[in-house]
Amino acid sequence: MTTLTPATVTAGAVLGERERLVLLAAEHAALLAAARAGVAAAELGHPDPLAFIRHELAERGQLPPAGARPVELLAVTAAARMAGQVRQR
């Protein structure tokens, strides 16, 4: 049995629908946990509260480019939602 990680998926592991959903749920949970840890760290005065989020994004190759503007990064997701490509809650 192949362990599901972004690396194994990138390496070409063939996944069924269930495995893709499991991986997606695990990735979402890790990013959500990092975001929550970042908020908690900021409230406690941690010197680098974004470290948790930065780590998770870096692992996925998803750090924003240097000089990226937050509103532009958010606009990409908003545009995808408007186009029906991303399910809204």
SSE blueprint:
Blueprint: H1 6-10, H2 17-43, H3 51-59, H4 70-82
Helix pairs in contact: 2-3
Structural overview:
With 89 residues, this protein is mainly α. It has one domain. Helix content is 61%, strand content 0%. Helix 2 packs antiparallel against helix 3. The N and C termini lie far apart (33 Å). The model has no long low-confidence stretch (mean pLDDT 86).
Radius of gyration: 16 Å
Give the overall average pLDDT.
Answer: 86
- Let me know the number of strands: 0
Order of helices and strands: HHHH
Shape: globular
> What is the domain tally?
1
End-to-end Cα distance, whole Å, is 33 Å
Low-confidence stretches: none
Q: What is the helix content? A: 55-70%
The structural class is mainly alpha
| Major pleated sheet | none
Describe the structure using short key phrases.
89 residues, single chain, mainly alpha, globular, 4 helices, 0% strand
Would you kindly provide a brief summary of this structure?
With 89 residues, the protein is an all-alpha fold.
